[in-house]
């Protein structure tokens, strides 16, 4: 369907445009013809990939192909245990990749489930109940409270109609709808009050409208199209590991070929050198890398579940660790999604209301002192109006079974929930805080009539009976209510509502609105016995104005601390919301998101910018208000173009395309829609922004642990290769046999490396800025540490071999002893070096017993080494001989030199740097004015 500004058209113009009448609707024949033209009213999933093809695609990766080659070589060498281990790694990675991609494809199917299954449509003058997918543009549809809107509809008639659109627009409360034309050309989705959007829910009232867009032409269809055409980002970890794998494989093959050629040229047997070279190649190829990464991520996921973060895609854990920007939805993410009255104005007095959420605990304060309700009749009347002129119900819901013990300890065994409109819920909670709940008032006041809220009147009225007669109570938008008021409660008396007093009320209303509060006015009148109260015109006249109530969706208290931690970690937080600009800026300022000099931008302003103009402004903009789904996607992509790693949080359908496009998408577990969850990489089970900080810390630690493993693995492999290379260059016999090389690879690269994957974080982990998106895996001196330690391990191993061999160079028995010494030296050097890998500085900067898994792993490897050396049945297999005290002393001294020599050098250089650089600047929690 051609996209038009349907909000500008009148009802009669629409009926004429679609060739339909209010009384008859379309005929069945016309509907069938239009279905041929426009298609079915359903969302397309795009081209689906078969599960089998998805699974097979997992094995096309370069690293996977190399691992398959390593499996074949291990089998040829008879190392069947190695072969089986590598096959298990290949299958595990393939299954994990398949599960991730298969689950990602479900986001569009979840989106389809938001479509209404059936609709009441006018066909041939008769209202028919048909499947919603049969609707076509021009159909006239009737709906009422509780119905899900089945297509994009332009309202023709409305009766007190409110629609919950937060999943689509981000609006935090139901939106009143009307049938009048809106003449302005460019109107954001949230302000198109005469249009109902597919997938949104009617919460109150009823209406009848004409279908203007169906299927993929709807606003929901646009989101489906965005999801289909938005590529998921490959994570930095995936990119770095793929790059690393290729580099290591090329280097391993090059060095192995060099060792073989030098050995042959030096007179070594070609066959022996070939098997030694193949053994070196298998040892040097990091076939354990994917497994260790998977294990490190999986264990990190288990820790994160305990911290209320559920990971759907394993690499996303690491990606959070390098996030430089978090784009967050406001409603329900940074705020509680519980409207709360915070300010009252009566008789010229400004009163503060304490307490948050739906729990009826709090006070009304004047000048920080509790108000005596018995003496303040004006406040009492306002609270009566807020309670009696509302239909919302707050109730206690038992805490879930798993939380009862903790809840009991905290004296919070129940949770308070709302049934009804959030605004009315805030008013009921307000009155309940002061003991005037609907239940407590029901014995004295009985509702006799109700005139529901209407988008034209912007008011709601009730008539209640009491012992002294009847009373009308009215609440509504102050600008509309003031016109209905003739009197005002002032200093306990009813006085004429003069221009001066009216001006004071209007001024206070404007102040509250500028503070981002949603303001309601309250009024009443006593009903005389002979008065006819059959219409709202009669009830809503000659009113006595009582006062004003200002409410807001309050920020989560823990979100402030989380945002401060993000700022200290160099992470910028950006608020993206469908709410109004003043509200968004006030919340952002309260939370510490919007710094001095920081910019705010509306969706309309954003729509007028080109991509180049947006790129220039995006780094200085912290708040985006009244945005549409495509705007969120543009913001994420602009930040990515500026080099940021972007995390996008949200809970609505409108967030799904941006969540999928972001480097990491985060959905809310409680309030989040299925669509946002399926498009996400991470789900917060408590909908708490602060849980993101825990995820960031976990992500950073996992990445550092992976770097520790790479440092350990490569330094060990470099040591093995250089030991062989230097021996060949020096014209020495082979210091290590093929079976010994494979054994070292299996034992030292196994348990100790795995234990590094669960190492505890260093103390200053969250005090560093995020690493760059394109940072090399060897950055921050990691490459130097690998080469220097590897070189020393190789030289010390070869030195121990040469010292032992020099006793009797021509004795075959002495050669076996020297090879056993080299074998022990290499293993022990690697097992000592693993403790050095725990610190970014040296082995002396961390307690070596802190990681008990690593201690157990190293002791296990030592026991295995002793078994190979001293169990007679294993000695012929591994070509080892028992060592004496002298040989053990040589081996242990040589093995300790690389780690302790470099560690001592690190300590010495650190002292020199501190001596000449002066005192170190400490960044504290108070440094909150640092711009992200």
TrEMBL record:
The chain crosses the membrane at residues 62-78, 247-266, 272-299, 709-730, 736-758, 790-808, 814-832, 853-873, 888-910. GO terms for molecular function: ATP binding; ATP hydrolysis activity; metal ion binding; P-type calcium transporter activity. It is found in: Cell membrane. GO terms for biological process: export from cell; proton transmembrane transport. Keywords: ATP-binding, Calcium, Calcium transport, Cell membrane, Ion transport, Magnesium, Membrane, Metal-binding, Nucleotide-binding, Phosphoprotein, Translocase, Transmembrane, Transmembrane helix, Transport. PROSITE patterns: ATPASE_E1_E2 (PS00154). This is P-type Ca(2+) transporter. It is an enzyme of class 7 (translocase). GO terms for cellular component: plasma membrane. Pfam families: Cation_ATPase, Cation_ATPase_C, Cation_ATPase_N, E1-E2_ATPase. It is a multi-pass membrane protein. Residues 5-79 form the Cation-transporting P-type ATPase N-terminal domain. InterPro entries: ATPase_P-typ_cation-transptr_C, ATPase_P-typ_cation-transptr_N, ATPase_P-typ_cyto_dom_N, ATPase_P-typ_P_site, ATPase_P-typ_TM_dom_sf, ATPase_P-typ_transduc_dom_A_sf, ATPase_P-type_domA, Cation_transp_ATPase_P-type. Belongs to the cation transport ATPase (P-type) (TC 3.A.3) family. Type IIA subfamily. It catalyses: Ca(2+)(in) + ATP + H2O = Ca(2+)(out) + ADP + phosphate + H(+). Its EC number is 7.2.2.10.
């Amino acid at each position: 369907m051609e996209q038009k500004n349907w909000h500008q058209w009148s009802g009669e113009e629409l009926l004429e445009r679609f060739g339909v009448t209010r009384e008859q609707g379309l005929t069945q024949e016309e509907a069938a013809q239009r279905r041929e033209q426009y298609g079915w009213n359903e969302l397309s999933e795009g081209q689906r990939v078969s599960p089998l093809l998805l699974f097979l695609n997992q094995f096309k990766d370069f690293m996977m192909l190399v691992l398959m080659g390593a499996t074949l070589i291990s089998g040829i060498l008879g190392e069947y245990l190695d072969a089986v281990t590598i096959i298990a790694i290949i299958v595990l990675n393939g299954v994990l990749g398949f599960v991730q991609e298969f689950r990602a494809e479900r986001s569009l199917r979840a989106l389809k489930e938001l479509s209404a299954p059936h609709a009441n449509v006018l066909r041939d003058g008769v209202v028919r109940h048909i499947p919603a997918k049969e609707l076509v543009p021009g159909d006239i549809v009737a709906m009422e409270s509780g119905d899900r809107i089945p297509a994009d509809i332009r309202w023709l008639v409305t009766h007190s109609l409110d629609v919950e659109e937060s999943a689509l627009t981000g609006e935090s409360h139901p939106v009143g709808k009307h049938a009048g034309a809106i003449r302005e050309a460019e109107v954001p989705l949230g302000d198109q009050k005469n249009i109902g959007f597919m997938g949104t829910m009617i919460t109150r009232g009823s209406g009848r409208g004409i279908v203007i867009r169906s299927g993929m032409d709807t606003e929901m269809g646009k989101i489906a199209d965005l999801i289909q055409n938005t590529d998921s980002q490959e994570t930095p970890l995936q990119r770095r590991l793929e790059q690393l794998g290729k580099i290591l494989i090329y280097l391993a093959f090059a060095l192995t070929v060099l060792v073989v050629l030098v050995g042959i040229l030096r007179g070594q047997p070609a066959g022996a050198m070939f098997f030694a070279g193949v053994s070196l190649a298998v040892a040097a190829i990091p076939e354990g890398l994917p497994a260790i990464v998977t294990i490190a991520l999986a264990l990190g996921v288990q820790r994160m579940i305990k911290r209320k973060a559920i990971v759907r895609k394993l690499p996303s854990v690491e990606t959070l660790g390098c996030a430089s920007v978090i784009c967050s939805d406001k409603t329900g993410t940074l705020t509680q999604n519980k409207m709360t009255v915070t300010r009252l104005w009566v008789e010229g007095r400004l009163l503060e209301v304490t307490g948050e959420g739906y729990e009826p605990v709090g006070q009304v304060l004047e000048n920080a002192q509790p108000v005596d309700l018995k003496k303040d009749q004006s406040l009492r009347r306002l609270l009566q109006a807020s309670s009696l002129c509302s239909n919302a119900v707050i109730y206690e819901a038992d805490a879930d079974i798993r939380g009862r013990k903790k809840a009991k300890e905290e004296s919070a065994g129940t949770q308070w929930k709302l049934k009804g409109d959030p605004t009315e819920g805030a008013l009921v909670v307000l009155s309940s805080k002061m003991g005037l709940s609907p239940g407590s008032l029901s014995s004295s006041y009985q509702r006799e009539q109700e005139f529901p809220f209407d988008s034209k009147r912007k008011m709601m009225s009730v008539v209640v009976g009491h012992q002294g007669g009847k009373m009308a109570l009215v609440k509504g938008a102050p600008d509309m209510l003031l016109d209905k008021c003739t009197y005002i409660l002032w200093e306990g008396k009813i006085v004429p509502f003069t221009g001066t007093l009216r001006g004071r009320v209007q001024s206070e209303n404007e102040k509250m609105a500028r503070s981002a509060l949603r303001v309601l006015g309250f009024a009443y009148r006593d009903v005389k016995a002979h008065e006819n109260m059959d219409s709202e015109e009669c009830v809503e006249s000659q009113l006595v104005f009582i006062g004003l109530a200002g409410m807001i969706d309050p920020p989560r208290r823990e979100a402030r601390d989380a945002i401060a931690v993000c700022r200290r970690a160099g992470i910028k937080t950006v608020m993206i919301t469908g709410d109004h600009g003043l509200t968004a800026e006030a919340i952002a300022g309260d939370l510490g998101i919007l710094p001095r000099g920081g910019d705010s931008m509306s969706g309309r302003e954003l729509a007028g910018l080109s991509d180049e103009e947006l790129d220039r402004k995006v780094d200085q903009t912290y708040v985006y208000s009244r945005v549409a789904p495509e705007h969120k996607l543009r913001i994420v992509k602009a930040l990515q173009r500026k080099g940021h790693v972007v995390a996008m949080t949200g809970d609505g359908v409108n967030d799904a395309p941006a969540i999928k496009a972001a480097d990491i998408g985060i959905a809310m577990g409680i309030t989040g829609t299925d669509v946002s969850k399926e498009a996400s990489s991470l789900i917060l089970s408590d909908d708490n922004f602060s849980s993101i900080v825990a995820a960031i810390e976990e992500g950073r630690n996992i990445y550092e642990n992976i770097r520790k493993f790479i440092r350990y693995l490569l330094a060990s492999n470099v040591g093995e290769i250089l030991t062989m290379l230097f021996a060949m260059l020096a014209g020495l016999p082979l210091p290590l046999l093929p079976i010994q090389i494979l054994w070292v690879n299996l034992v030292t690269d196994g348990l100790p490396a795995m234990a590094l994957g669960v190492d505890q974080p260093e103390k200053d982990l969250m005090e560093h800025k995020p690493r760059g998106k394109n940072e090399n895996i060897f950055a921050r001196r990691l490459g130097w540490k690998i080469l220097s330690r590897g070189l020393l391990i190789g030289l010390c191993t070869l030195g121990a071999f040469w010292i032992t061999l020099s006793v009797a160079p021509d004795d075959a028995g002495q050669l076996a002893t020297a090879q056993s010494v080299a074998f022990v030296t290499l293993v022990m050097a690697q097992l000592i070096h693993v403790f050095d890998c725990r610190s970014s500085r040296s082995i002396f900067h961390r307690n070596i017993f802190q990681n008990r898994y690593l201690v157990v792993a190293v002791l296990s490897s030592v026991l295995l080494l002793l078994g190979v050396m001293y169990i007679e049945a294993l000695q012929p297999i591994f070509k080892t001989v028992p060592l004496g005290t002298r040989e053990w002393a040589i081996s242990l001294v040589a093995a300790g030199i690389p780690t302790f020599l470099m560690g001592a050098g690190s300590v010495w250089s650190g002292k020199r740097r501190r001596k000449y650089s002066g005192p170190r600047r400490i960044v504290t929690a108070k440094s909150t004015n640092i711009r992200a």
